[in-house]
């Protein structure tokens, strides 16, 4: 692994994505993050009522996806905002 990759991994912000299996935008967002090598925790709010409440508390929204990037919330899959918060260009 190159020094730059090691540095990027150490600096990556914590990413949590609140999703549901039936949500095409959620699947697109997860695929986008995987393709860029971004590690994330996938939380299925359809199976976890406590996680759903947590998502609503964080975002004020009931719709998915909700992406938490280092404590900053992105509602929906806003690629430009995700890139900005992750420092991708």
In words, what does this structure look like?
The protein is an alpha+beta fold and 89 residues long. It has a single domain, classed as Glutaredoxin. It has 4 helices and 4 strands. It has a 4-stranded mixed sheet with strand order 2-1-3-4, sandwiched between helices. It is globular and about 35 Å long. It starts with a helix and ends with a helix.
Summarize the structure.
With 89 residues, this protein is an alpha+beta fold. The chain has helices spanning 3-11, 24-35, 49-59, 79-86; strands spanning 15-19, 41-44, 66-69, 72-75. It has one domain: 3-Layer(aba) Sandwich (Glutaredoxin), CATH 3.40.30.
CATH architectural arrangement: 3-Layer(aba) Sandwich
Q: Would you tell me the structural class of the helices and strands?
A: alpha+beta
Task: Give the CA-based shape.
Answer: globular
CATH superfamily: Glutaredoxin
- What is the chain-wise order of helices and strands? HEHEHEEH
Alpha carbon gap, first and last residue = 21 Å
User: What would the average pLDDT be, to the nearest integer?
Assistant: 90
- CATH domain fold name: Glutaredoxin
Q: Report the uncertain regions.
A: 1-7
Q: Using DSSP, what is the number of strands? A: 4
Share of helix, binned: 40-55%
**Beta-strand fraction estimate:** 15-25%
How many whole angstroms does the radius of gyration measure? 13 Å
> Count of helices?
4
Tell me the strand order in the biggest sheet. Answer: 2-1-3-4
Largest sheet: 4 strands, mixed
């Amino acid at each position: 692994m190159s020094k730059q990759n090691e540095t990027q991994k150490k600096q990556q912000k914590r990413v949590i994505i609140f999703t549901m299996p039936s949500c095409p935008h959620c699947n697109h967002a997860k695929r986008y993050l995987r393709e860029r090598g971004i590690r994330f925790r996938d939380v299925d709010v359809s199976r976890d009522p406590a996680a759903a409440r947590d998502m609503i508390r964080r975002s004020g929204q009931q719709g998915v996806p909700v992406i938490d990037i280092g404590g900053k919330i992105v509602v929906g899959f806003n690629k430009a905002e995700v890139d900005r918060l992750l420092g991708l260009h």
